[in-house]
Amino acid sequence: MTYNVSIINSPEELSNCSVFHVDQFNWGGTYRPVTTGRLGYIPESAFILEMECEETNPCRTYQEDGDPVYLDSAMEAFFCFSPEEPKPCYLNFEMNANGAMLACFGQARQNRTPFPKEIREGLSCHAQIGKDSWSIRLVLPVTLIKAIYPNAALRAGSTFTCNFYKIKEEGELTHFASFAPISSPEPDFHLPEYFARAQM
User: Which letter, b or e, does each residue of 147-158 get, where b requires 16 or more Cβ atoms within 10 Å of its Cβ?
Assistant: First the structure.
């Protein structure tokens, strides 16, 4: 499974990027909100991600960055820019409809590290709530990626791996969906071996 990342000049060109569908409900369930997204890359600047979910009045309890937004209705993006390593580091960005974001890096679900303040400049998440849907826009700056992956090649022809998710981990309307399928007996998004290939 491969997602083609478009090279763009500005965020306004994101509407021209390929659409991906977060439609793999690997662990069943009857609540299956339609979730889509687009990812583009502005060279030497940032990746721009937009995701949209057809969901009315999404659960949005948490307000602050670092809060456990996966307990709300959340959309998530995980990236790995060193997939060739035996136990690669990957980045997770988990966002609710308030624009609150949990953002960390590490090699496994346990002991993940929040991004330090000195490399967060330019990292942002904006959420918008409509009548029958909500969306997020994530700006992932190259400076942050290079701080974690100094040797990452970020240019036309480069590849990395990623997966995108829709989740509500607890309570009413619990659900787990992914872009790339995951073969795990229990819900688990922290499995980089199931990330999809992204081609720039």
Answer: ebbeeeebeeee
- Its pTM surpasses 0.70: yes
What is the phi/psi pair of residue 71, to 5°?
-80, -20
Amino acid at site 118: E
Within 13 Å, how many C-alpha atoms sit on residue 10's CB side? 1
Task: Round to whole Å and give the CA distance between 91 and 43.
Answer: 19
The residues facing 135 across adjacent strands are 52, 128
Q: What is the pLDDT of residues 76-113, one digit of tens each?
A: 999 999 998 889 999 999 999 999 999 999 999 999 99
C-alpha to C-alpha distance for 23 and 164, rounded to whole angstroms: 10
Closest CA to 102 of 23, 169, 183, 199: 169
Question: Which residue from 138, 162, 158 is spatially nearest to 51, judged by alpha carbons?
Answer: 138
Name the 3-class secondary structure at 124.
Answer: strand
